[in-house]
Amino acid sequence: MRVDFDPAEMSGPAFYRFLTSVVVPRPIAWVSTVTPDGTVENLAPHSFFSIASTDPPIVQFTSIGRKDSLRNVEDTGEFVVNFSAEPLLQLINATATDFPRAFSEFDYAGIEREPSRHVRPSRVAVSPVVMECRSHTTLHMGNSTLVFGRVFLASVHEDYIVNGRPDAERLRPLTKLGGDEWGTLGTILHLSRIPYEEPAM
Fold this sequence. Notes:
Layout: H1 12-22, E1 26-27, E2 29-34, E3 41-46, E4 49-54, E5 57-64, H2 68-76, E6 78-83, H3 89-94, H4 105-109, E7 113-114, E8 123-124, E9 129-141, E10 144-156, E11 161-162, E12 165-166, H5 168-171, E13 175-176, E14 182-183
């Protein structure tokens, strides 16, 4: 027997809790931005995050409501996606609080910055992978805004590269589940795709 969850009969927050409990695990974009005057650097995790295009390379994160990350991207057109690794859980969680825009999460959590090469927002020095992005498109949908950014540079600490690409076991990606639950990598399964073969005539 199934239990139905009907969004027409539920409040928005209630169905949000349902969605985030079943669309799991979700990768986390740890997004750094800066205010237009360059005085305050914002850093916040966004767990609605994906690849939108590979050529050109475009990544996407969603802001539910008008968060500081969104405002700064709209005002400056730039952001950095810092990879969320398992050893950084406490730091990432410390930047998830809804602080005022004039408050820097870098400073609050004592997170070391490093300069970006192509954009103004700083990178997180301890993050194993960073992607410097410029805003491509923003799409307003319901109570959310989808932010699409073209990747102009990706930089990876050399210790995380195996056979020419970042290695998942070394990266130890952190994911978001429902409520206050977080996920880790777990067992990696290797399974090749089955190639299509034309039937013999």
